[in-house]
Amino acid sequence: MTMLKVLTLAFTISLLFLPGVQIIFGQKFQRAENMSAETYETYLDSVTSGDWKIESAGEYYYWLEDNSKSILNTKNIFLKSFYFVEKAMAAEATDNDSVAYNCINEAFVILSKTNYSNIKLKILKIGLLLSTRGFDYFTKIHFLKKIENSGILKSDSTELTDVMLQIADLYWHLHQYDHSIGYCEKALHLSGLQNYKKGKIRALLTMYTNSHFISTDKSYKFYLEEALRNALSLGDSSLIAEVYFNTGLSFYRDGNQQEAIKYYKLSRSYEKERGSQSDLYTCAHLQLSFTIADSVEAVGKISNFFMRESVKQNFYSYLSNAYRGKAWYFAKTANRDSSVFYLDKAFENRQSLPEKKDASPGFYYNLYVVADMVRDKNRALKYLSLAHKQYVKANRESNSEQLNNIRASLDYELQEEKINNLSLQNELTKEKNTRQKIFIGAVTALLVLTLSFFIYIRKKYRQLRDSYKELIRKNLELDKLHSRISKTEEKVNHHKNGNGIKNEDEIYKRLKELFEKDKIYKQADISIINLAKMLNTNTSYLSSIINHHFEEPFKTIVNKYRINEVRRILGSSEYNNYSIEGIAEEVGYKSRSTFYQSFKQITGLTPTQYIENVRLLSDYDLYKNESD
């Protein structure tokens, strides 16, 4: 009797003793025991199209575990590979993602030395599908690199270029800009050989997004211009729309909202279908630029379109943005009740989206801004708290410095103090209205309540004074922590060995001196290219040193040094006669809008708000001296 007949007989006998659902499991593998390449490929197609279903995925997973030896005791490589794909799908259905990824690797390895290229590619695409559903960028890169390096796709295949572009995009999302640029360059080279203009345009757009984060000048505009030239020559309206959108995004990031609005509108004019997903994505950014530009009627109009089309096209994930725009519109038109209504709808919609509810710090911060506009303390605190938690989480996940988390906490406390002050103002307003109704003609009662009012104000002023004492203490702790971190870095650098490491440490040490002693960031045209020349090295090596030691892009580092210098200046009498714009120029900013945007991003406050806080601290010192 052959081994295959023995296995078939064993399966048949075992099925007689299995409970209901397990009989179905066994029958599934009975039908697959003679699986061929054609039937296996058809099965893989059904999985990638979303047709894979099983009752009781948890039970199925354990059944596969228990029966692994008998199932895998076969020479049929397709059945073996089928087993691991089934196990991967069952594991993913029970939220056991790491096991699912390992099973896909096993399914691929079984066929790795065969010539079944289509089957191997489809197995890896299932791995991509699972890692995409699990929002696991690193695993997705792993499967894409397997496709790239396994020889499944020929070098003249445009699909290979698309794979490289996907890897470049994922590395960009992980803030690993050097790796992203490396894959963009590969894709540009391949797309040129293949005359694949669509791939070339996508590579140029990804190069733009990378350059924007590592360059302090406007050199990234070159990639947008090249992308637009190629898109126009190709005549593909969707690609032209995408390039115009990215051009608008570049102006938005530079703080030029009018130009951003112009290019967003151009992008929409090339969209094939109004209300499509890409059109609504552009609308979301257009709405944001209208908001920053304070174009109230435009925000109201586009929010209505946004809301209507999101429901019509079943793109419910965009509804929260539409509701947020409506809330802002009603806040600006003094319709508080409607604003609060749409604030709640925006919050509820975002909370219903599993992939976004815990990854939207900017969204919740914008809700906080609207709640602050309508003086709703409770909602403002709730939204600000969510934004703060998610900013800290994002920093931790991207390996940010502990100092950033401390600063995030400090910024949060400053905003919370602002809300508490707002609460005090609300209470005072209510008391004033109550007094106007009750105390008319009651002189004695007025005197008593006036005295109580001044006692209350004095108490609140003391509380405010204590809060700023704590703020001063935290600033001192922040400075001490920064000093300890710098000393620790010096000690670690002193004990490192090896020629390569010494050279890296020397460049890093000189880099710190250029920033902290020479204050090179004050040069308006400072760039990583200029800096590399000063340090007698190349940009790639310098970029890797910056990423390794600072764990932040070059542009962010320059902005932080500049803004910290501005904070120092605003706290001293050195530049009393300077305007804010004059101080911005002093530290290296050419554009007023870029300075304001950077200051708000790093400190959580506008320059004007920051100066007001500094004055409050000065008033506190004066009050303290007078009291003493």
TrEMBL record:
TPR repeat windows: 241-274
One example GO MF annotation: sequence-specific DNA binding
SUPFAM superfamilies: Homeodomain-like (SSF46689), TPR-like (SSF48452)
Gene3D superfamilies, per the entry: Homeodomain-like, Tetratricopeptide repeat domain
Coiled coil: 461-491
Keywords: Coiled coil, DNA-binding, Membrane, TPR repeat, Transcription, Transcription regulation, Transmembrane, Transmembrane helix
Stored InterPro entries: Homeodomain-like_sf (IPR009057), HTH_AraC (IPR018060), HTH_AraC-typ_CS (IPR018062), TPR-like_helical_dom_sf (IPR011990), TPR_rpt (IPR019734)
Transmembrane segments annotated in the record for this chain: 438-457
Domain HTH araC/xylS-type: 505-613
Protein name: Helix-turn-helix domain-containing protein
